[in-house]
């Protein structure tokens, strides 16, 4: 699928790191390093703008290495970018660790996955069909 993009950063366009990767790594586009203190959140620019086809969305997800090694994650994970949005892609990061973390210009800070989606129409009813699970939730199917 071809996606129109404007790159106002000094970095290469996001790319898949392997042939089977689902996510493209997004880089911070910073004038100077940004320090994220413990429990602090900041909106970081990428200087990327895109035009997704109707019926698709971009999901912004954490990078597992940053989350595991440093406690840095995407706060509204996954963040959703709708196909009609034309503004700059920005990443809302939070530091869940007990140590400050410095983000450098060009650092890979999140990943973006493009997904097809559907829109629904509601059908108001009085009764829902029963299922094996029924109304069970929040651990009702077993441990873990």
TrEMBL record:
Binding site for substrate: 63-65, 76, 80-82
Keywords, comma-separated and alphabetical: Hydrolase, Magnesium, Metal-binding, Nucleotide metabolism
GO molecular function: dUTP diphosphatase activity; magnesium ion binding
Enzyme Commission numbers on file: 3.6.1.23
Reactions catalysed: dUTP + H2O = dUMP + diphosphate + H(+)
Annotated GO biological process: dUMP biosynthetic process; dUTP catabolic process
Alphabetized Pfam families for the sequence: dUTPase (PF00692)
InterPro entries named among the record's database cross-references: dUTPase, dUTPase-like, dUTPase-like_sf, dUTPase_trimeric
Domain dUTPase-like, chain residue ranges per copy: 11-142
Requisite cofactors: Mg(2+)
SUPFAM superfamilies in the record: dUTPase-like
Pathway, per record: Pyrimidine metabolism; dUMP biosynthesis; dUMP from dCTP (dUTP route): step 2/2
Family (UniProt): Belongs to the dUTPase family.
Role this protein plays: This enzyme is involved in nucleotide metabolism: it produces dUMP, the immediate precursor of thymidine nucleotides and it decreases the intracellular concentration of dUTP so that uracil cannot be incorporated into DNA.
Protein name: Deoxyuridine 5'-triphosphate nucleotidohydrolase
Organism: Marivirga aurantiaca
């Amino acid at each position: 699928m071809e996606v129109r993009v404007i790159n106002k950063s000094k970095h290469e366009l996001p790319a898949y790191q392997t042939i089977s990767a689902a996510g493209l790594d997004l880089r911070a586009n910073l004038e100077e390093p940004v320090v994220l203190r413990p429990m602090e959140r900041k909106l970081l620019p990428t200087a990327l703008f895109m035009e997704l086809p109707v019926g698709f969305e971009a999901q912004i997800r954490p990078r597992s290495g940053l989350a595991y090694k440093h406690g840095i994650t995407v706060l509204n994970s996954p963040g959703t970018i709708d196909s009609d949005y034309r503004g700059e892609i920005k990443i809302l990061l939070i530091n869940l660790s007990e140590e400050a973390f410095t983000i450098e210009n060009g650092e890979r800070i999140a990943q973006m996955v493009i997904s097809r989606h559907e829109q629904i129409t509601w059908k108001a009813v009085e009764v829902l069909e029963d299922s094996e699970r029924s109304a069970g939730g929040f651990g009702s199917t077993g441990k873990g």
